[in-house]
Design a protein that fits this description.
alpha/beta, 3-stranded parallel β-sheet, 3-stranded antiparallel β-sheet, about 35% helix, globular, binds zinc ion
């Protein structure tokens, strides 16, 4: 059965861009008599605030986007991410990274050809093959994308807007799969949860198209099913900037108080 999800972070209010994203997922499911789910991506626990969970659901109800099951919270699911990380360790496709942000910046400044991706500089691989880890530091865990790619061979994914896309496993470099503080990351958690919730169509903004290359690699390494993708257009403000938390005037709750209809301010899905 077609199943989609909207996965907001309870670190701020819903704004017009979120409403658009939620509607894309909701309508895709409803058109096919499928299920529409909500999942809270709350692993950024220091920025999460309790009132945002209920605020987001209130906004979705007001928008007329009803969901079909009790929303999941990623903070309830840390053991599942840990189990997945253990499987990746057993496959030998992750390694511990002890670098601080500052050390990575210094390393990148010292390199003549610092590796670069679509979202900025890539991790230079400092800790890959590290012989003696520092005793006094907890590591983060990074994907060794080359080892992963060697295990799985060529991959593709299908996007409803962009068609068939060849996976470039190194597009984002050796990304962090488990942060020191929480033991997981966006990439690992989303792949595990999409599979656990039997999501058939992953919908999200096209700013996350690069992440899908990593996600297909992780899905294959972890023997998870391949969903279809729909990377939708981003909603921009009048100056062409993508909407963010600073756009309080375009928060759904503000529009509701002012009696404005958000759907009149958005392109058709
Ligand atoms: Zn490192």
């Amino acid at each position: 059965m077609t199943t989609t999800r909207f996965a907001p972070s309870p670190t701020g209010k819903l704004h017009l861009g979120h409403a658009y994203s939620a509607r894309v997922a909701h309508d895709l499911a409803r058109k096919q008599n499928g299920r529409f789910l909500v999942r809270f991506e709350d692993i950024d626990h220091t920025r999460v605030r309790p009132e945002y969970y209920e605020g987001i659901l209130t906004d979705l109800r007001w928008l007329g986007l009803a969901w079909d099951e009790e929303p999941w919270k990623q903070l309830d699911r840390l053991e599942h991410y840990q189990a997945a990380l253990d499987r990746l360790k057993a496959l030998g496709v992750v390694y511990p990274c002890y670098c601080t942000r500052r050390e990575i910046e210094t390393e990148l400044t010292n390199l003549t050809h610092a590796p670069h991706g679509p979202e900025g500089p890539l991790y230079p691989g400092t800790c890959r093959g590290l012989a003696t880890p520092p005793a006094d530091r907890e590591p983060a865990w990074r994907l060794d994308f080359q080892k992963g790619a060697d295990l799985v061979g060529l991959l593709t994914f299908h996007d409803l807007r962009h068609g068939k896309i060849d996976v470039d496993p190194g597009l984002l470099g050796d990304v962090i799969l488990a942060r020191k503080d929480i033991g997981t990351s966006y990439h690992l958690a989303v792949v595990i949860d999409d599979a656990a919730q039997k999501i058939t169509h992953v919908t999200r903004g096209e700013d996350l198209l690069g992440s899908t290359h990593i996600h297909r690699l992780l899905q294959t390494l972890l023997n998870l099913p391949e969903p279809a993708y729909l990377h939708h257009q981003l909603i921009l403000d009048d100056s062409g900037q993508r909407l963010a938390k600073r756009h309080d005037a375009l928060a759904i709750s503000t529009l509701r108080e002012r009696g404005e209809d958000p759907w009149n301010m958005l392109p058709p899905a």
